[in-house]
Amino acid sequence: MTSPTALFQGQTPLAVRMRPTSLDEVAGQGHLLRPGSPLVTLANPEAAARAATSVILWGPPGTGKTTLAQAIARSSGRRFVELSAVTAGVKDVREVMQEALTQRDLYGQSTILFLDEIHRFTKAQQDALLPGVENGWVVLIAATTENPSFSVISPLLSRSLLLTLKPLTDDDLRLLIDRAVADARGLAGAVALTDEARDALVRLSSGDARRALTALEAAASFAEPADDEAETADGSEPPQITPEHVAQAVDRALLRYDRQGDEHYDVISAFIKSIRGSDVDAAMHYLARMIEAGEDPRFIARRLIISAAEDIGLADPQALGIAVAAADAVQLIGMPEGRIPLAEATAYLATTAKSNAAYLAINAAIADVRAGGFGRVPVHLRDAHYPGAKRLGHGKGYVYPHDSEVGVSPQQYLPDELRGRRYYEPTNHGQERDVQARLEKIRRILAGER
């Protein structure tokens, strides 16, 4: 039997060899491939002669964006041109458009332009796509891992259909892995796969087909038969890929995490919301994902400081100090040890009492100021230290609070236009319960209602 290593030598990567040739072979994305859906219609050869809508495929890596574009081109009989936004410029785009126009006018053949990573194109580069898309010289299929609302210009968005791809399910990945093991384009039965190894590959690939197949190919190279088995007659059992082979090939979970992309924002959002929701286990999970993906620990620490002030506040005044201390500790000791103070601060913030009263207070005050509700500072509060200030009456009538036996004197602090306005309304959570009772007394004194 051919050894796995001999099978791989000189070949293109397994993930490329196993790319589907038609939409029927595509695993996952069933919500986009129902009969009559835009992608299925686009792949119909009878539709190739008609104008077709350009599409933008938005989804995580390894979910089939390139695969769908190539399968549509093959099925429809359209000419297929692929550009990468990483290497292509305006000149390349214009050349493709001109050639597409020539092909259409001379030979009646329409062109699919597949543009990978369109979010990397500048506005000028995206503008160069507009004439071809608007006039139907090309059917644009653009792929992006980032939210097109932020990375694609509005004129191009309005002329395209935005389709969202989902991460592959575990069942989708198992189907792909088994197909790659058996298919002549793949490993052609040169290896077998234990159920445990298959589950390990699925778990490590994080919904990414490309990573699953790359890990499978690497694991297969470790599944060489022993020397005394290499000369067995045809028909002998192929070597098996075990979880140990998978572990040898892949030393950690293949986390899908782009520090500049959507996943960066999604994970940090889930991290903060887990802390706010007091789910310490979920918060630890998202912290671990960020650490393992190489996120800047200073970024994590800054978000912990914000969380302590925004979501905990005076319900537990120690929270802010602990978050700041964790940020200082990360600066002093670096990583990987910095994960420990980050974990300590995360656990403390997630499990302590919560209040967003201070956060709501400053937002309400800023809203009043922006709306023009600020008025003049009361005369008795104005600075009376510069020459001529007393002649203007500044400071006159000010009552020094420390002269009062309770440390609070009845007088007006807000401008006349905002007199009686309340911004800070403490909750009865944690230590803010004591603040609430004390504040009511203070407000009564300030209003002269002792």
Can you offer a commentary on this structure?
- This protein is an alpha/beta fold and 450 residues long.
- Helices cover 46% and strands 7% of the residues.
- The chain folds into four domains: 29-164, P-loop containing nucleotide triphosphate hydrolases (Rossmann fold); 169-249, Orthogonal Bundle (Helicase, Ruva Protein, domain 3), CATH 1.10.8; 262-351, Up-down Bundle (Zinc Finger, Delta Prime, domain 3); 358-446, Orthogonal Bundle (post-AAA+ oligomerization domain-like), CATH 1.10.3710.10.
- The chain has helices at residues 4-8, 14-17, 38-43, 65-76, 90-107, 123-127, 130-134, 148-151, 154-158, 170-182, 195-205, 209-220, 243-249, 262-276, 280-292, 297-312, 318-333, 339-351, 357-370, 432-446; strands at residues 54-58, 79-84, 111-116, 138-144, 160-164, 192-193, 240-241.
- α5 (90-107) links the parallel β2 and β3.
- α11 packs across α12 and α15 packs antiparallel against α18.
- The relative contact order is 0.08.
- Residues 226-233 have low confidence and may be disordered.
